[in-house]
Amino acid sequence: MRTVKLDLGPDSYDIVIGRGLLAQVERMTALLPQKRAAIVTNTTVAALYLAPLQKALEAAGVQIIPIVLPDGEQYKTWETLNLIFDGLLTARAERKTTLIALGGGVVGDMTGFAAAVYQRGVPFIQIPTTLLAQVDSSVGGKTAINHPLGKNMIGSFYQPQLVLADLASLDTLPDREYSAGLAEVIKYGLIDDLPFLEWLEANIERLMGRDTDALAYAVERSCQNKARIVGEDEKEHGVRALLNLGHTFGHAIETGLGYGAWLHGEAVAAGMVLAARASYELGQITDADLARIIKLLDAAGLPTMAPALGYERYAALMAQDKKVDAGQIKFIIMRKLGESYMGTLSPEVIAAALQAGCSD
Ligand code: NAD
Ligand code: MG
Description:
- This protein is α/β, with parallel strands linked by helices.
- It has helices at 26-29, 43-59, 78-90, 105-117, 131-137, 175-192, 194-208, 212-232, 247-257, 264-281, 287-299, 311-319, 347-357, and strands at 2-6, 13-18, 36-42, 63-69, 98-103, 124-128, 142-147, 150-157, 162-166, 306-307, 331-336, 339-343, 358-359.
- The mean pLDDT is 96.
- Nicotinamide-adenine-dinucleotide binds at residues 42, 44-45, 48, 71, 73, 76, 103-107, 109, 129-130, 132-133, 136-137, 140, 142, 152, 169, 172-173, 177, 264.
């Protein structure tokens, strides 16, 4: 068992990583202000993990309100959020009733937002069950739902009291979802952790085999990286933006192809290659560095060529990104391998990166 602390003064919390944590409910019960909690999950995850978690908590004397949502990013909406409130109000959940998110990033983001606003804020625990949620979305307190006019446009910052990343839950994760999570893991190495990047290069086969020890280390190191960055900049005024490496290109890919065609992590992988190609065009990384990045992402089962949408379409899609500041598109660029910064890219550099990095 490994513990990473997210240091946010009075809002600090532990991220606990290990196998079999779902059954060890004392960590949760110790934090509950009343012996009542709602478990929010979706149909897929409920079938796998709701009963054991609910039984273990009930055996510890906790009364459980189960709330099972439909599965999918298309349900990350006001309407589904309201189903959570329906469940809470029908069961007369109170201000001291804790919301437990059991699922991937969609369930985590929606439950976190519900916890932030139900009766102006109730306690919240994250139990992430996808690799992406364990290394990224459950850590850092961003919560949101989608609006028909934009992804994650309605939300708040709201920190959980505890994150429990049970590695055993990843046993049932489909390969494609697992690889998508690895994209965010590799991202931490590229942002500012060259030793981790080198460890990933040496251990990618073990990770692809879902080796427990390798996975525990990768999740821990990823959470340490995210916790450090969020601890420095909780509300994204500066350094937290580095977590968007590959995401400006990636979001353009996701929107350009239509949501759901590529998984987020897949788009981020191809987006990170485009960011690397732009950095190469600027003379900041070598072609050997570029080849290493591509090789690692490829070994992680991720796409390394972006779809050919054309320069104009990419430029238009990227201009709509949330990270646009006074008309300037901010990119995360590699200063060298394992070190990134936020800056702008000229149309020539973007065009050259797309020229080299899009398949036809
Ligand atoms: P997801 O929540 O849709 O989960 C992917 C799929 O895996 C779903 O079908 C889910 O039901 C299924 N699943 C979950 N756990 C499983 C398990 N253990 N075994 C088998 N199947 C399982 O997707 P995701 O990739 O976890 O999260 C993506 C969401 O996270 C997006 O909405 C994104 O906006 C959000 N996100 C938020 C942050 C943040 O900081 N809050 C960061 C990154 C991403
Ligand atoms: Mg991401």
